[in-house]
Amino acid sequence: MILGLLVLTTALAISGIAAYYSIIGLAAIFAAAAVPVIIMGSILEVGKLVTVTYLHRYWRQSPFLLRSYLVIAVVVLMFITSMGIFGFLSRAHIEQTTVTGDNLLKIERLESKIGREQRTIKDADGVLFQLDEAINVLIEYDRIRGNDGAIAVRERQKSERQDLSNTLLNLFTVREQISQC
């Protein structure tokens, strides 16, 4: 008696889980008509269980033609269930792949942005180096004062140096934001 109840409970659990995944999968395959597919899938699953139960109970009393038809119907319903489960698993696979693909695209974009920012930083550092070299050359030739002296040139470079400093500061801020992603 206990073994019979265990077998019945296990069979119904397996059938119920398969029916659930099949119905969800069929709704994923035929997404434009989700509600009708869910109704149809539910009725087909119940019909399959009822048909198998009928065949089990009345196998010997049923005519051969009816038994053949019902067995073929159950096999077809099993294929429909399998197709629904395949649809469910396919949808799960596609959703997982899509998320991974989106992440790869984001990473590529971030790497590209980092590369551009590194080139901008390198260029800004190069310009600052050139500005410093111009001052160093003037100091080297003892041209510190006057309109063309190091102090005057340095004063004229002040706005350009400020712009470069702001650019570098903005890039370092962006880099920090990217590294937090």
Distance between the termini: 60 Å
Number of helices: 5
Tell me about the biggest sheet? none
Mean pLDDT: 82
How many individual domains? Answer: 1
Beta-strand residue percentage: under 5%
Class per helix and strand makeup? mainly alpha
Task: Find the count of extended strands (DSSP E, 2+ residues).
Answer: 0
Shape: rod-shaped
Helix share, percent: over 70%
Low-confidence stretches: none
- What is the string of helix and strand elements? HHHHH
- What Rg do the Cα atoms give? 38 Å
Question: What tags apply to this protein structure?
Answer:
single chain, rod-shaped, mainly alpha, 181 residues
Written description of the protein model:
Helices cover 88% and strands 0% of the residues. The protein has one domain. It has helices at 2-29, 34-58, 64-140, 150-156, 158-180. By secondary structure, the protein is mainly alpha-helical. α1 (2-29) packs antiparallel against α2 (34-58), α2 runs antiparallel to α3 and α3 runs antiparallel to α4.
Write the layout of secondary structure elements.
Elements (H helix, E strand, L loop, with lengths): L1 H28 L4 H25 L5 H77 L9 H7 L1 H23 L1
Would you kindly provide a brief summary of this structure?
The chain is mainly α and 181 residues long. It has one domain.
